[in-house]
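User: We ran a pulldown and think these components assemble together. Before we commit to crystallization trials, I'd like a predicted model of the whole complex to look at. Sequences follow.
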Amino acid sequence: MDELPNQDGGYHPVLAVEIGRLRLQNPVMTASGTFGYGQEYTPFVDLGRLGAVVVKGLSLERRDGNPPPRIVETPAGMLNAVGLQNIGVRAFIAEKMPQLRPYNVPVIANIFGETVEEYRRVAEILADCPGIGGIEINVSCPNVKQGGITFGACPDTVQEVTGEVRKATCLPVIVKLTPNVTDVRDVARAAEAGGADAVSLINTLTGMSVDIERRRPRLANVTGGLSGPAIRPIALRMVWQVVQAVRIPVVGVGGIMTAADALEFLIAGATAVEVGTANFVRPAATMEIIAGIEAYLVRHRIGDIAELIGTLKVDAETDAGQAEGC
Amino acid sequence: MDETQAVRGDIVENRAVAPGHFQMSIRLPGSFPTPVPGQFVMVRSADHEEPLLARPFSVYGFQRRRGETAVDLLYRTAGRGTALLSRLEPGARLVVLGPLGRGFAPPEGMKKVILLAGGVGVAPLVFLLRSGRLAGTNACTCYVGARTGEQLTGLELLRGADLHVCTDDGSRAFCGQVTDLLRRDIGGYDPPETMIYACGPSPMIRTLGRLLGDRPIRCQVSLEERMACGLGACLGCAVAVRGESGRKEYRRVCKDGPVFDLREILFASPGGAEEGQQNG
Ligand SMILES: Cc1cc2nc3c(=O)[nH]c(=O)nc-3n(C[C@H](O)[C@H](O)[C@H](O)COP(=O)(O)OP(=O)(O)OC[C@H]3O[C@@H](n4cnc5c(N)ncnc54)[C@H](O)[C@@H]3O)c2cc1C
Ligand SMILES: Cc1cc2nc3c(=O)[nH]c(=O)nc-3n(C[C@H](O)[C@H](O)[C@H](O)COP(=O)(O)O)c2cc1C
Ligand code: FES
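Assistant: Here's a predicted model for the assembly, 606 residues in total across the polymer chains.
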């Protein structure tokens, strides 16, 4: 597309992207669990300017989550073992959606369950809730025993869960993949085969930290999910691999702190990104990232972000996953 | 209510007040809302990427003077984040998020106010006393304890109050803990007329819970837990409380607290499971 001049002679590049039938005014969403139910960030973020708000993972009934301590900072990141505490899908619809609707921003409900049936029922309940723009299936939570981990690690199960949710709703379905697998492409293909409109990745990497003075784990749950800049190179690599393995759009998540980080994912082929831990460090991070992406497009005279997505120039004839340099 | 802000702050002063203890004064934009005692701020260096997350600190003092707005913190070096803060020089740039959380409720006509502070827990109580919010109560008694005499900080700011001091090592005043001091006097306080404000390390809060037991004395405690967002979004700062119908629920220290009614809190037993304060 050509440059679009405006009054001051500058350009207004097109930032809108599509994930299945879901149109986002820009590619920047919030990552589930890092932005509460949206309202917590209104002093800093104009929710109406986000690509989408992805809310904290929802289950059929409310859940208490894990005992404290639930978080600990680690080099360039943090571990969390919140344990999927949430108010339950019905309370979310009754109490939180009325506050989100006025912003006219697509709300993506991140969902999880302990059984395939539970995933399906949560999706069903959300199916005709006004204001919900899509469903993100969390098959990858490493915190709850017998929870996400077993679903996300097995391609067959991922295909089954995706298929059941697909049947329960007409909303766009995004499957959020766990990095805690041998080859994330197998799981991505399974999600595609199950009828997903998109995949998002990565969820947190399972990690651990020990207090050597007390010889105790720093998290009450012992293990937790690693997020933040530390995981960005892994997330980027996995996104790049999955982009080549599936035909559906890919949403990049993991350690995105700045517009430059987000652009790495877009160039590698992500259609959109989710910003997580950065919200904790700079509450207005999403706004800065949107502005930074726009500034980059202007600077590079790119009229439409579609012209940037997936334009990574790779010189050597390398296959994804074979470039380890070993 | 005034909204929370994320602002640039400049260090005006950052000096050691005791071994491992620092007092920092931060100049803020005039738009920064005046904190309520018990509220806190999250602070990080604007010029360092590590540590990643801001650290929470109670407001120790707050001034608007001759067009300048400043917040004071009293902190001890506990690890990486506070060690970095302690090395910053006046002029260094910070990012300050706040005011955060729900502060102390006023004593509402109670005749007697007790402040109970362990270590740097004295910070929010000093701010409470100096804010004038206790005005109207006839008598305020402060129990302040620290590990050593050197580490007793902020006492000069409690001048005028009925002050009782102790140290764990006996190097100054009474040898023992603030809860021992309170235990000595507790029988003399009339429960319906008394309000206790407390802040200190978790063992102190737990002992306080046992000490008060079934006495119907109201006690507001300021709790600490590790935090990421400070805004109620990440659910990282959970504390177990007795919810409606008596069942265990988690609350967010950053948003639902940091000040809680002592009676709500379910303390973790050393084995990990939560226990009620009465049967601890
Ligand atoms: C609402 C609130 C008010 C606080 N007010 C003050 C204050 O006025 N003065 C002061 O000195 N400290 C205060 N703290 C505690 C202070 O936030 C921690 O000491 C600090 O975050 C430790 O960071 P660090 O990087 O130095 O230590 P880390 O390396 O992160 O940890 C060192 C040790 O401190 C503990 N710790 C880490 N984070 C916290 C935390 N948020 N709360 C309690 N312990 C923690 C860890 O378990 C570990 O044992 C407050 C905490 C909260 C939640
Ligand atoms: C405190 C916290 C809670 C999270 N909760 C969820 C959740 O409920 N559902 C989910 O799919 N992902 C959850 N995540 C994972 C994030 O959405 C994201 O995938 C991950 O943090 C990596 O991105 P980041 O490095 O930008 O944070 C959570 C992450 C954090 C830090
Ligand atoms: S620190 Fe994030 S919810 Fe309290």
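The interface with chain A takes residues 3-6, 44, 49-54, 80-81, 95, 97, 225-229, 231-240, 248-250, 255, 268, 272, 274 of chain B (CB under 8 Å). That may be worth checking against your pulldown data before setting up trials.

User: Thanks, that helps.
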